[in-house]
Amino acid sequence: MAYQKVNADQRAPGHSQYLDNDDLQATALDLEWDMEKELEEPGFDQFQLNSAENQNLENSETADLNLDPIQPAASPKGRFQRLQEESDYVTHYTRSAPKSNPCNFCRLLKIFCTAIILFISGILIGYYSHKNCPSNATSSGTLDLHLYQEILKTIQGEDIKKSFRNLVQLYKSEDDMEISKKIKTQWTSLGLEDVQLVNYSVLLNLPGLSPSSVTLSSSGQCFHPNGQPCSEEARKWSSQDLLYSYAAYSANGILEAEVIDVSYGNADDLKRIKKMKNVTNQIALLKLGKLPLLYKLSLLEKTGFGGVLLYIDPCDLPKTANLSYNTFMVSLNPGGDPSTPGYPSIDGSFRQHRSNLTSLLVQPISASLVAKLISLPKDRTTNGACSPLELPNNEERIVNMKIQTVTKFETVTNVVGYLKGVTFPDRYVIVGSHHHTAHSYNRQEWASSTAVITAFIRALMLRVKRGWRPDRTIVFCSWGGTAFGNIGSYEWGEDFRKVLQRNVVAYISLHSPIRGNSSLHSVASPSLQQLVAEKNKFNCPRRDQCPKTNISSEQIQDDADYFINHLGVPTVRFTYEDIKTLEGPSFLSEALFPKRATKIEEMDPFFNLHETITKLSGEVILQIANEPVLPFNALDIALEVQNSLKGDQTTTPQLLALASRLRESAELFQSDEMRPANDPKERDPTRVRMLNDLLQDMEKSFLVQHAPPGFYRNILYHLDGKTSQFSTLLEAWEHCKSLASNETLQEALSEVLNSINAAQVYFKAGLDVFESVLVGKN
User: In this entry, which stretches build a coiled coil (predicted)?
Assistant: First the structure.
């Protein structure tokens, strides 16, 4: 039945005058039972008042008034509902009515008529309520972890492997637009609705007709970036790889100057070198890693260097990655279309023609070429230990470097598909991968990324076809132009900025799922680290054998950049890495190799790691998209802020005091608002919506206006997993040590102080709003 019977002790106050003695209570209960019994029978439409009266009068003479066992209020269920569940309920509770008299008969008649009216009203209300409600009761609000697993269990590594191989073959024969159309067709065939191709005309910096070269002035020997001598044969043997061994948006030209080894190019390195040599218009020999490349180039530019030879020291790479003769590409673009900085590349937008984004001539070269420049033997191991590449201080090397690139406008395409939510369709969970763009690198990496997102869409749509939908809208994006500075994601973000600022709840990155096979590495916003830690148990059924959870909030090089730094969106990314890579210098992933030294299928032959990444990411997506209350932890943000200030030489009493107040507000918010909202018995829809709006905007307070080149504007993210201090304060402190003025440090301290204060005010204002709403209702 679509209703529950009201118990005897829960009747309306207007009926209390008829229930002053035990006799009448027993009689009312008996009548109530009789009515329910008759209503269950097929002859309900023949129901007559006289039959009920006669039945009660016949039973009244044998009444037994022992009512002690009858406790209608002891169960939250009405007796009509309990009758359907307990077969012995009738014999256990049915009592005879007491002897009646004319006065009692009148009262009973009134009670009976009132009950009939209430019953008919209940039938009508139940009928129309049921008619107006959707017949499919599988609301995503009731989706539990068991159903998540039902969705995810259809994901199989073998299916991902087949998809991956098809994409790799597709790359060999199709251009960027055709690949985007293929992805759209595939997503549409899986059932994803409203799949769009979003195109932007952007300024790309491409290599010239001939590869770059480096010539030793002393001997006249000419080398290509991979270390091979300049010759027509070498150019034909690897023409494409040589052409695309370049720094996109570098300055063009020819520069002949002395090569000066600046190691990793940090402030201390440059301070030491400036004391020894005149660096004006010289060529820096720079190692990639430890700090963002754009930041190091900005320091070299300020110092007065004219060119840069960029390389990766083999000692910084896993032993399995033999990249001595491999060249690579880097992009000097901080993000988006360089011709429309800060605004989308739509028709009619003003275009700035910027062929280069730096005054430096930058050329990536292989480690083998560096060894030739500094005349080192091939075997550089000492007692089994790797010896880093280093140019002797007492030796001079003069080289001539030649760089030629061209800039032109080309179309970059994004593939965007929507799965609309049923409860909060205006709240978006964005899932991002990237696809091949003409002239892009990491050819197999993009196929791995695309195969993973397609596998999750396939599993999800199988459930959607059975009538289920998520509460919040899931937006699937395959970005174009990633290799040139995340151009596709930036342009789409700038295009829809106003909508995304208000509606985006989280971003889940599937950018580079497999970079190694020895360690699962998770990057997450502080507010999502607790959720990610729970999901990591999926990959480790036996807790006693689980390795330490590797979760951090650190800078990552992928299309999540815009959402983290300009929208303040909580972000999650799962990847498999080599342990050596995690232990080595950060930011090595800024280098894009044209051919993977270790192929994807060699690292994950059965695609089990792909399957794990897909399921881990999928469960996070499902939980964020379906939980009534967003699974974000406000207190973890406050704790992260306090941890970032521990042991920092730049910390001031004002910063510590503000961080303490932020923690107090977050604790109060967590206990007073989060706890009741997560309890279905106390949950109020209006307050839940207010709470979710507050949760999704928590990180926006930590976006600073000014950050050094290559550094995140979102100060909750650190430079790498080994440092816990605020990155902007670390940089400012290093800058302060090399200069007499501490103005830069004071500016950085002020920005961090204002961010923490803004977050504390944000939480406090939210608590005040909730309190005022509660008072208003009372």
Answer: none
